Amino acid sequence: MESRRLYGSIYKIALSVLLPAILLWCGAGMIKNHMDDKELFEYLLYSDMEDMPDTFLSELWEQKGVEAVSAVLDIPVHMEIEEYEMDISLRAVDTDIFPLKIDRCLTELEAGSKIPLYFTPQALEGLKDQNQYKITKGKKEDLIKRSLGMTAEISPVQGEAQEPGTAADEEIWKQTTAVYRETGIFAAVLEDIESRVYIPYESGKKILALTGTTVQVRTVYIKIRGRSKADAVIKNLEEMGFRTEAL
């Protein structure tokens, strides 16, 4: 009888200790799963083979968990800033959707006809003077400090672009000197370690139109809510041959 009482007491003590621990563990698991379902995941999708079809973006929208999709354009240009110049690829994005991490920006941007430029400090490391000497550290830091509101001239790389032409009975391509020269205004300094200059998507389309270049979408930004949904969508895209990059 005494042994039964002893075992009963031990059982009650063990139960009083273990049950809260089990409930706490289960609760923590449920909270983690809930948080995973709420977490946002952002990616860039790259197509190495060909342009993405027009229906691809709308198809992405139909995937479970997808909350944002937008096309991204990379446009090689020649840029002149004061007495410095460089060749760089402008990344045209939907600035209302794409995650630009802004450190400093103009309080009121009155760009007018100028193209807003959002740049990382590392992007200015590519600048060279007229003698092709690399910008000094001190000059680069000076440009960064007073960058907001500065202007930059944007033109085609090597000053040439491809435009379609016609022959007597067939379409041909001919090399022509590009006439466009756009002015950009430094609107924001970004928090990023990449060497990158961003512009609004519509500005990117404008530059391509001025060079006679067809818009070719090979990069897409996508935002997905929920870890399991993100894993499923990305796995499917990679199986289709797309490269993905987590942001």
Write the layout of secondary structure elements.
Layout: H1 2-38, E1 40-46, H2 56-61, E2 66-81, E3 84-93, E4 102-105, E5 115-119, H3 137-145, E6 151-156, E7 160-166, E8 171-177, E9 182-190, E10 197-200, H4 201-210, E11 219-225, H5 227-239, E12 243-246
Parallel strand pairs: 3-10, 5-9
Antiparallel strand pairs: 1-11, 1-12, 2-3, 2-6, 2-11, 4-9, 5-10, 6-9, 7-8
Estimated radius of gyration? 27 Å
| Spatial gap, N to C terminus | 67 Å
Kindly estimate the percentage of residues that lie in beta strands according to DSSP: 25-35%
> Unreliable stretches, pLDDT < 50, 5 or more residues?
30-34, 159-177
What structural class do you assign from the helix and strand content?
alpha+beta
Q: Major beta sheet, specifics? A: 6 strands, mixed, barrel
Order of helices and strands: HEHEEEEHEEEEEHEHE
Number of helices: 5
Estimated helix fraction = 25-40%
Number-wise, the strands total 12
**3D shape:** extended
Q: Provide mean pLDDT, rounded.
A: 83
Which strand order does the major sheet show?
2-3-10-5-9-6
Condensed summary:
The protein is α+β, with helices and mostly antiparallel strands and 247 residues long. Helix content is 30%, strand content 35%.
Written overview of the protein:
The structure is a single chain. The chain has 247 residues and is of the alpha+beta class. It is 30% helix and 35% strand. It has five helices and twelve strands. The strands form two sheets. A six-stranded mixed β-barrel has the order 2-3-10-5-9-6. It has a two-stranded antiparallel sheet with strand order 7-8. A hairpin with a 2-residue loop joins strand 2 and strand 3. The longest helix is centred in the first third of the chain and has 37 residues. The termini are far apart. About 10% of the residues have low confidence.
